[in-house]
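DM between two lab members

TW: hey, do you still have the Alcohol acetyltransferase entry open?
JB: yeah, one sec
JB: this one, 518 aa:
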Amino acid sequence: MSTAADAKSSPAAESPAVLRQAGLLEKFHIIRSSISFYNNVIVSASYSSPNLLSPDRLVRALHTVLSAHPSLSVGIQLPEEPTGTPSFIRLPSIDFSKSEKFIIWESSSTSPGHAKEYKDLICRLHNTPFSNEDLKTLPLWRIGVLKRSYNTPTAHDSETNSEGRIDYEIAFSFHHAIADGLSGAAFHYSLVSALNSVDETGDSGANWDIYTPPKDLKLLPSMDEILDFGMGIKTAGKVAGFVGKSVLPSFLQKTFWAAGKIPEKLSPTKIDVLTVEPYVLENLVKTLRAKKISLTAFLTYAVADSLFTILKVWEKDEFAKIKYVKVSVPMSYRKNAGWDNTVMSDFVGAINWDIGKFKSLEGEVSGMKKLTAELKKESTVTRDSEVGLIALIGDLAGFFKGQVGKDRELTFEVSNLGILDAGKIGDPKKKGREKEQKEGEGEGSKMGAKGSEGWRIEGALFSQSASVPGPAFSANAVTVGGNMAIVVQWMEGVFKDEFMEALVKNLNKTLSEFSSKA
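TW: and the structure you got?
JB:
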């Protein structure tokens, strides 16, 4: 907690303290963003509360969250030389009196318009880069708060849902160098806990406008400091493959479809959202378990199936040329490092997977099983992973810019954040809810139950901005309370909006039908 005495020490006058150099993957994300080829990641959560969320309550809660996660109090010092390594610095302070630079407050106009306004907020955050000028002075994160309205054209005005609770979407947007998707979930675990612990009546002498990071602030080490990303025979094969691709005659190269060439600059991120209802997801998971297929592997093939289906209708000539698509599937290295899902850092890797054009999703069970096994195997070892190859690139900015105009290397990416921990999202335990229901039938007892439940998270969305050299589109999944939400993202100009909306609609249908057909 920062007090008035902290403010008197003029933390802004201090020169930034260098905490450590960026690791391999962190450097990759920093340089890619510094040349405006990629912006950010967002994990957004749907919060419900018996009370209004005031700016004061949010700021007080954020003081607690910042104290728990060192990466939220750092900036970036870019290297002077193209081949240099960026460093993380300790921000002298975070000034919440100027929070309009990193906290957005909005309210939905009507209940029917909320979904569109929610998507618009996420797109706006995705399309707001972390400028190089602000890296040393502003935090590497932003928050968007959207208060849900229950106003309808045919009913009286209402700010509350049927339970008398107030709902908010709180979107956490962050620089990929300081956090991965699971870190976004960790932020919300900390925030919902802090909101439930805030005492707005106490600490009258505290200065909540200024948060001063501790002098001894320490970042977690980068993952290549504590894990082995060395290169062996397997890596040598990958490098030989890259070299061979540049010298082999085109008719000897294995070609795949990835929606054209890499553009010169980043265009706006567009998204669409689909939600898989609990009964559909439950049936789907049962079917996959029986076949020993992971949900992530299935989603990867389901997205490919929808892409093939829509291409066949919308782009017949392109569809006829397709032999296969290349997919990136991220995975976490947290277990390898001995860390759980409550810490914030950037600890991900990925595998690339080829999917040949197929006629029916039900006929691809074998491929899904192979991908399931590959993900399980690759998540346990780091040596010879894709991350290690970053060490071979001296000038990352030149490497990224050198890809412009060339064929894109990835068709799409599927990233599954998994299930948010029910014990960490403010959700009362089942026994507690049953006890409340049994304790009284009267109106008074119902009101008491509403007031006592406090803040909780009832849904989430996971997404990332478009990337100039990255996949043509991505599908990002997260599950809360039995509901799985999938955000499909693409870059304006790569696909028509109507094409991607058709793909999402087809994917939604595919997820519902697979269990009955397979």
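TW: got it. The mean pLDDT is 87. The chain has two domains: 4-223, 232-385+404-416+460-517.
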